[in-house]
Amino acid sequence: MGSTVSLMRPDTPAENVDHTAEAARLERTAGLYPEDAEALLLQAAAHLELAGDRPAATTLYDRLLSSQSGLENPYLVRALKASNLWEYGHEAEARAIIDGVRAASPRDPAPWVIVAESLEAHDELEAAQETFTEAARLLLTDVEEPPYSTHPLLFGRHRVRRMLGVAHDEWDTVADLLHSSPVSLDELHDPKRVWSLGSDNPAELAAEISRLRAELGTYREALSRPFPVAVLHWPADELRELVEAYPTLASEYPSHEEHLATIEGSLRELAASGTPNLGIVTGTVPSYEAFAASEMASPGEAELLPQYATTLAARGRAVEWPPQRGAGCWCGSGRGYEGCHGV
């Protein structure tokens, strides 16, 4: 869930992995599984960036953006393209894309974090702070508990503001509270940290090693975060086709309206019981039939449905529940979640 910002870019050095070969493998896999092509091609582009072939990565981003089938996360792709372009000299085009992403005000925190970090990486600290703040204002105003996906937004904003030397505000305080490492954000984001690396003082070096260990622990925790506990959702047309093809599943889905109500009710029960990291995966009949074939089982077996949902979640197909404030409802009605199933 999905989505994730830095998780879109593998961090294994090029000398340890043949990133070009891995990108080619992912492109071939995308051809075999078109329903997962967006996620697979984004990973392929990340490998190409790590291999140093940034023009080839841009070609993949352009391929996604020109897709006729539509993208689940178009602003994420645009943000990644802008970040990549700026790294090999196309600053003007990158800035134009970044301005477009900001103007579009996406409800997903990932594009915001990517463009803000791109600005930060090129010493545009004021613009980075403004971008982080725009996103926080859009996504977190009147939100009691910031969703996990927004944590990088708050941490990045805290880091940039620390470098600018500005006083803490309310969102910086929230970032401090969300940060679980034994080393505080103020210490991790101290602009003077770089000097300790060249220090001859054993105490300063030991303190920096502790800070690095804390950062590594936080990074590992983010990488090991499990995929969401996901509930399976069928759009109306897909559910009709599913039940017509496999009548034994009719008892599972008496009607589409009841199916949607059951999804929302199940997720609210899970949330009330304290289950974290909840999501929704959307099924299609061809994908479900392919999954059943891979399991050497009949698609008409109801026991297969939760396994299918888990597999989709593990492949990064889950969307976060509840949706971000102001986002469209997960059911596809076109209405905002607050005015639809979020009532």
Explain what you see.
The structure is a single chain. The protein is mainly alpha-helical and 343 residues long. Helix content is 58%, strand content 3%. The chain has helices spanning 19-32, 37-50, 54-65, 74-87, 91-104, 109-121, 125-140, 151-164, 170-178, 185-188, 193-196, 202-224, 236-245, 256-272, 285-294, 304-314, and strands at 229-233, 278-282, 319-320. Helix 1 runs antiparallel to helix 2, helix 2 (37-50) packs antiparallel against helix 3 and helix 6 (109-121) runs antiparallel to helix 7 (125-140).
Number of separate helices = 16
| Counted beta strands | 3
Described by the principal axes of the CA atoms, the overall outline is globular
Q: Could you give the order of strands across the largest sheet?
A: 1-2-3
- Structural class comes to mainly alpha
Mean pLDDT: 85
Poorly predicted runs = 1-9
